[in-house]
């Protein structure tokens, strides 16, 4: 016979639960995620104060969000002009054929190329949509020659030069933020 051990159930221990029975994020997890999307450098004490937990409990929750893959990565957002990147282009790419090996090869090329800062496999008018950062239009032209013009699997591509970045961010609408206001 095994001895049963039970820990005292306190409001604090109940708040430490990672996900509910339906594998959904609870209100505290969502609040933590909103805070961390604004400032990933917030320390556990600040997070705990903001959501009504101890620093230890907040840190445990954040660690669980990372371990479960909800938080994928913490990054620093760099001002592009400070590193000489003046030209951003949106590029719609159509492949010659939709064979799996061609798709996989192009996906790998996207992942490897440092000028491609975002890449999406899409439906509609393009197979892929890319956001490309360049120092100049001349540099972008060299990029198109090496990635598109010399690739027999590229049927066509169209470029739109970004005139002004109206909104740039990576924060996702979470919980109540997903509901349109207005």
Strand content: 15-25%
Q: Report the strand count.
A: 4
State the CATH topology of the largest domain.
Answer: Alpha-Beta Plaits
Into which percent range does the helicity of residues fall? Answer: 25-40%
Short description:
The protein has 182 residues and is α+β, with helices and mostly antiparallel strands.
Describe the structure.
With 182 residues, this protein is of the alpha+beta class. The chain has two domains: 11-67, Winged helix-like DNA-binding domain superfamily/Winged helix DNA-binding domain (Arc Repressor Mutant, subunit A, Orthogonal Bundle), CATH 1.10.10.10; 80-161, Alpha-Beta Plaits. It is built from six helices and four strands. It has helices at 11-15, 27-38, 44-51, 55-67, 100-112, 137-149, and strands at 87-95, 116-121, 128-134, 154-161. Strands 2-3-1-4 form a four-stranded antiparallel sheet, with helices on one face. Helix 3 packs across helix 4. It is elongated and about 60 Å long. The model is unreliable at 1-22 (pLDDT under 50).
Topology:
Layout: H1 11-15, H2 27-38, H3 44-51, H4 55-67, E1 87-95, H5 100-112, E2 116-121, E3 128-134, H6 137-149, E4 154-161
Antiparallel strand pairs: 1-3, 1-4, 2-3
Helix pairs in contact: 3-4
Task: State the main characteristics.
182 residues, alpha+beta, Arc Repressor Mutant, subunit A, Alpha-Beta Plaits, four-stranded antiparallel beta sheet, 6 helices, 35% helix
């Amino acid at each position: 016979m095994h001895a049963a051990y039970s820990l005292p159930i306190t409001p604090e221990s109940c708040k430490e639960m990672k996900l509910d029975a339906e594998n959904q994020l609870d209100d505290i997890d969502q609040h933590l995620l909103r805070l961390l999307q604004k400032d990933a450098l917030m320390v556990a004490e600040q997070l705990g104060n903001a959501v009504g937990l101890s620093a230890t409990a907040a840190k445990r929750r954040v660690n669980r969000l990372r371990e479960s893959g909800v938080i994928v990565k913490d990054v620093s957002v760099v001002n592009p002009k400070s590193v000489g990147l003046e030209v951003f282009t949106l590029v719609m790419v159509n492949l010659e054929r939709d064979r799996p090996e061609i798709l996989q090869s192009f996906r790998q090329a996207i992942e490897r190329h440092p000028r491609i800062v975002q890449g999406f496999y899409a439906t509609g008018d393009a197979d892929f949509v890319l956001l490309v950062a360049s120092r100049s239009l001349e540099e972008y032209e060299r990029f198109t020659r090496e990635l598109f013009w010399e690739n027999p699997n590229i049927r066509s591509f169209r470029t739109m030069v970004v005139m002004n970045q109206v909104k740039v961010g990576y924060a996702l609408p979470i919980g109540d933020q997903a509901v349109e206001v207005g």
